[in-house]
Amino acid sequence: MTVPIAANVRSLTLALAAAFLVASLGAGYWTIFASGELARDPFNPRLIAASRGPRGAIVDRNGAVLVESQKSADGFVRSYKDPSLAQVTGYASLRFGLAGIEAAYADSLVGQDPADPASIWRARYLGERTPAGSVVLGIDERVQRAAAEALGRRRGAIVALDPRSGAMLASVSVPSYDANQVVDPARQQDAFERLNVAPDRPLLNRATQGLYPPGSTFKAVTAAAALESGFDPTQKIRVDDPFQPDRSWGDYFVRSASRSHGDFDMADGLRLSENIYFAKVGLQVGPEKLAEYARRFGVAAAPRCDLPAERGQLSEDGSLARPTLLADTSYGQGQLLVSPLQMALVYAAIANGGVMPTPHYGTEVRDAAGRVVRAVAPGPAGQVISPSTARTLTDYLVGAVAGPGAFASGARVPGLNVAGKTGTAETRPGEAPHGWFVGFAPAEAPAVVVSVIVENAAEGGLVAAPLGAQVIRAALGK
Predict the structure, then answer these.
(1) For the residues of 331-376, what is the DSSP string, one character each?
(2) For the purposes of burial, counting CB atoms within 10 Å of the CB of 46, is it exposed (0-12), middle (13-18) or buried (19 or more)?
(3) Burial class (CB in 10 A: 0-12, 13-18, 19+), 45
(4) Which residues contact residue 311 at a Cβ distance below 8 angstroms, ignoring those fewer than 6 apart?
(5) What is the C-alpha separation between 93 and 97, in angstroms, rounded?
(6) Which residue among 48, 68, 254, 370 is least packed, with the fewest CB closer than 10 Å?
(7) Element (H or E) spanning 387, and its range?
(8) Cα separations (Å) of 52 from 56, 73, 92, 105?
């Protein structure tokens, strides 16, 4: 049977129309809905091709050049000035793509910032490239240097941020690497291969992506949950070591951190970092309320940040229903995992009247003439606790640094009221604990929050607290 020509033409027309419709929908999706994702892709060929020319500079808040393009025999190559910022500034490699700020602000660094659509249109459709300007970071070179010197060669991280705005003032991750080797055509292949297989993972930004149990620094979250649940912080709770509420806990006991016996109120519990006190408080607060406040503070969610930030965990299944897990979590152990950035944000919320800021490394994008094209100001993440709860916690955290017998006394800075908490976080059996300090200053008008983690520090938080004090002094000019 012969098919009429008209039917063939109709079928072909419908097939072509359907194909055109599918192609149009695909083009529309990638152009309208996924264009931002494509622009940020570190292997975007348009951005890599643009990298053959001079990219814009990356500078600190005071205009000090951190990264710039230099003319070479192969065109232009990036020059990275501060190895302590390697995981922050990243790299721009024709072979390995983009990382760090080089990736996060890739369009801006080739003169095509999203806030300037005309420059994007001219570059894409007319081939006219706008001269690249610069990306300004919140990083303060002086504070960064103090943080890098404080941490030295110890494995870990230090974060310093402004609790009012969320701008990052310093960000150190050790071990680090030399990004100049990754962009050097003669050395990049060998350098990148070595970095990828290194057991201590120098490419990892431990400040935002390292995950650790928070230890006693988490007691501030338990305290906040208790205060907002109507718990009386002046109530005396008996501490006898070891603690076990009933025989159903089997061979599980909570051990005292302070090795003290007696009656503790909340101020005592924070000052002497008493595990048994906070285990008892957590059991009174209950699993649902503690989990609620942990999530309010961002635990188990990835912080919204312009550089990749890792999501931690409250527990393996997100629940604290098992009493022994609830007790452990209440003093910062259990199955908790957090990043140094996340703990900085917890204490930033306390410092900022209960409002958690949104962290950001970039603060401005400028054009080649130095004019501001775009201000990076993401605004607060939200109200986490009440201002009165924040004030009460601040008072207790000042006592945790300055009070008699305070575990965080190493963070004292003459002439300043520092609010903070140390932590000694147990890790794998047979390994030394991690040492933490998280705090802010001046307590009456906080301008800096510092979060310190020192991996496998034999003396735990006693090692971290003085490092935090060094960074606070630098940030406040003391």
Answers:
(1) TT-TT-BB-HHHHHHHHHHHHTTTEEPPPBSEEEEE-TTS-EEEE-
(2) middle
(3) exposed
(4) 300, 301, 302
(5) 5
(6) 370
(7) helix 387-402
(8) 12, 12, 10, 16
Give the whole-angstrom CA distance, residue 475 versus residue 461. Answer: 21
> Cβ atoms within 10 A of the Cβ of 35, count?
13
Q: Looking up tokens 């080089």, which residue turns up?
A: 102
Residue with tokens 């609620």: 292
Q: What are phi and psi of 103, to 5 degrees?
A: -90, -45
Q: Which residue has 């081939």 as its token pair? A: 127
**Main-chain dihedrals φ then ψ at residue 25, nearest 5 degrees:** -65, -40
pLDDT reported for residue 324: 94
Give the DSSP letter string of 194-247: HHHH-TT-TTS-HHHH--B--GGGGHHHHHHHHHTTT--TT--EEE-SSB-SSG
- Asked if residues 81 and 123 have their Cβ atoms less than 8 Å apart, the reply is no
Those residues whose C-beta lies under 8 Å from the C-beta of residue 135, and which sit 6 or more positions away, are 56, 57, 58, 59, 101, 105, 108, 109, 362, 364, 365, 366
Name the helix (H) or strand (E) containing 407: none
Distance CA 348, CA 355 (A): 8
Query: pTM (2 decimals)?
Result: 0.89
**Buried-exposed string 255-271: b where 16+ CB fall within 10 A, e elsewhere:** ebbbebeeebbbbbbbb
Mean pLDDT, 10 residues at a time, over the chain (478 residues)? 61 69 57 50 52 85 96 86 98 94 95 76 66 94 98 97 98 97 93 95 98 97 98 94 78 79 93 96 97 97 96 96 95 97 98 98 95 92 97 98 95 97 93 96 98 92 96 95
Residue of 9, 29, 7 lying closest to 17 (CA atoms): 9
